[in-house]
């Protein structure tokens, strides 16, 4: 009997999509907070994740002040068996999150981070949305994992310059697994 999570079949898995804002050095945060404020990235994030099942870790939940993101089915990955937050489905494995998606008929699961969750899921991901912040943050303490450009292809990119609301140049990129 085949394991329904066998990545070689791709038949029963939902599309696994990672979405992240990362600096040139893959920095994504410091002290459980973002390193920048880019209003257009927040809109991009909201548009891509709206009405979708989203999975993120407990530290990201803490950064969200222990509140679910509106308009999305929120799942939090944690080892804490006692965690209970109104409006959030608690899961203890990636497989459980995928199973939940399959049971509810979803065809895509959005992974929102943090760095540990990205590291656990990048190997099974089909797509990555990166807001590439064109700066380096050497004092960051959280990073998006490196990924091989031989396994991924840039399928779209839209570039933006610094303006009165955005202190950093940035690009919206979509990478698809080859």
UniProtKB/TrEMBL annotation:
Phylogenetic lineage: Bacteria, Pseudomonadati, Bacteroidota, Chitinophagia, Chitinophagales
UniProt keywords, alphabetically: NADP, One-carbon metabolism, Oxidoreductase
PANTHER family for the chain: DIHYDROFOLATE REDUCTASE
Gene Ontology biological-process annotations: dihydrofolate metabolic process; folic acid metabolic process; one-carbon metabolic process; tetrahydrofolate biosynthetic process
UniProt function note: Key enzyme in folate metabolism. Catalyzes an essential reaction for de novo glycine and purine synthesis, and for DNA precursor synthesis.
DHFR domain ranges (all copies): 15-177
Top enzyme class: oxidoreductase
Descriptive protein name: Dihydrofolate reductase
Oxidoreductase listed as a keyword: yes
Organism expressing this protein natively: Hydrotalea sandarakina
């Amino acid at each position: 009997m085949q394991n329904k999570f066998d990545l070689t079949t791709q038949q029963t898995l939902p599309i696994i999509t990672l979405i992240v804002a990362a600096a040139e050095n893959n920095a994504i945060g410091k002290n459980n907070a973002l390193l920048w404020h880019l209003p257009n990235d927040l809109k991009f994030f909201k548009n891509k994740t709206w009405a979708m099942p989203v999975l993120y870790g407990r530290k990201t939940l803490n950064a969200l002040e222990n509140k679910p993101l509106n308009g999305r089915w929120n799942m939090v990955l944690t080892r804490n068996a006692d965690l209970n937050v109104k409006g959030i489905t608690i899961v203890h494995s990636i497989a459980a999150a995928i199973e939940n998606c399959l049971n509810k008929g979803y065809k895509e699961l959005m992974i929102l981070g943090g760095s540990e969750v990205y590291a656990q899921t990048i190997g099974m991901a089909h797509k990555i949305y990166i807001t590439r912040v064109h700066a380096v943050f050497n004092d960051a303490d959280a990073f998006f994992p490196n990924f091989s450009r031989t396994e991924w292809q840039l399928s779209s990119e839209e570039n933006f310059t610094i303006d009165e609301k955005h202190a950093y140049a940035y690009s919206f990129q979509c990478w698809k697994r080859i």
